[in-house]
């Protein structure tokens, strides 16, 4: 059997990330069935939780492979969009699992973007106190970020990802070919998390991105494969150092997110896509870093150039500190009632910073209401 592209090294919870590209005739250089068997072990029942947008394509293909392995499949379709990361959808999934004879030996297979991955992952973590699960990400964002690392969960109206758990998958299966049907807006949204890795811990990758955002926008297969591999390597490295965000190392993956999550929640989930909000949040964080004299103004210029080249939004006209600050106060990095931010030192290096004056946070938010 071929070797996985990347291993997430977490001791007994270690798992492979396969990065492959299926061919025009539907064949794949790596066999899904044997990879599944190798990572999951014995399985007679799978709960296939999938996004409605890929029901007739990727989800159907996965279902056929599982059926060919003599695995009984329970299909659960989730409506597309951020609002599906909800208590109501989770309850529907739990009840369908209960009604279909799901037991502790069943395996959840999440097929879709970050919404389905986070939701199905939490359903797996919580049903009968924990089922094995597999991630089959079908968006750029889910391939480079959400399918790796085991953060699962749902939103509450007042806070993103407020209920969830750390629950690692048995394997991550990335077929870059599935991106061919992804709408441009969702592809561009995923680019924010790709660029994030360059700023937080991989300066060489950031330089590569400066020259290659055009090829990525055209979905050049080699460029895509490089960006996905490099991003997954970054994520796997950070997660292996700090699986449950206890030492602070994993918190670097939250660069821009304190602002981003407040934008998403105050706008109403799904109005500003997660990656779009992350891009705007990265701009706010860079401005705050400059105001705190942690990084030079040139960092913001470099970051702006790459985000702009990727066609990401950089301003949020509705940005209102009075609305955002109460939501930010519920950020998961808050410690002893105080906000903490991931702020840049230089390209490729960021730090977790507490004691940030509120007036500087407000200035950073207000500066991103318009391009200046
Ligand atoms: N767990 C984590 O570590 C982590 C990391 C980053 C983001 N997230 C979460 O991920 C979510 C965003 O994920 P996303 O950007 O993948 O959004 P998404 O899951 O909403 O998918 C984006 C859109 O693409 C459609 N789609 C999915 N695959 C498709 C395909 N192959 N072809 C055509 N359409 C397709 C979906 O129907 C949806 O409309 C947010 O909820 C965010 O909080 C989680
Ligand atoms: O994996 C992580 O850790 C991240 O922070 C990755 C983020 O891109 C992602 O959006 C994550 O869901 C945010 O986590 P949260 O703990 O702030 O909800
Ligand atoms: Zn994110």
TrEMBL record:
Protein name per its UniProtKB record: 3-dehydroquinate synthase
Alphabetical list of Gene3D superfamilies matching this protein: 3.40.50.1970, Dehydroquinate synthase-like - alpha domain (1.20.1090.10)
Residues annotated as domain 3-dehydroquinate synthase C-terminal: 190-334
Similarity comment: family membership: Belongs to the sugar phosphate cyclases superfamily. Dehydroquinate synthase family.
Stored InterPro entries: Dehydroquinate_synthase (IPR050071), DHQ_synth_AroB (IPR016037), DHQ_synth_fam (IPR030963), DHQS/DOIS_N (IPR030960), DHQS_C (IPR056179)
UniProtKB keywords: Amino-acid biosynthesis, Aromatic amino acid biosynthesis, Cobalt, Cytoplasm, Lyase, Metal-binding, NAD, Nucleotide-binding, Zinc
Described function: Catalyzes the conversion of 3-deoxy-D-arabino-heptulosonate 7-phosphate (DAHP) to dehydroquinate (DHQ).
Cofactor note: Binds 1 divalent metal cation per subunit. Can use either Co(2+) or Zn(2+).
Key word Iron-sulfur present: no
Pathway, per record: Metabolic intermediate biosynthesis; chorismate biosynthesis; chorismate from D-erythrose 4-phosphate and phosphoenolpyruvate: step 2/7
Keyword set includes Membrane: no
Record field: transmembrane: none
EC number(s) given by UniProt: 4.2.3.4
Binding of Zn(2+), residues: 193, 257, 274
Chief location category: cytoplasm
Compartment(s) where it occurs, according to its Swiss-Prot or TrEMBL record: Cytoplasm
Domain of life: Bacteria
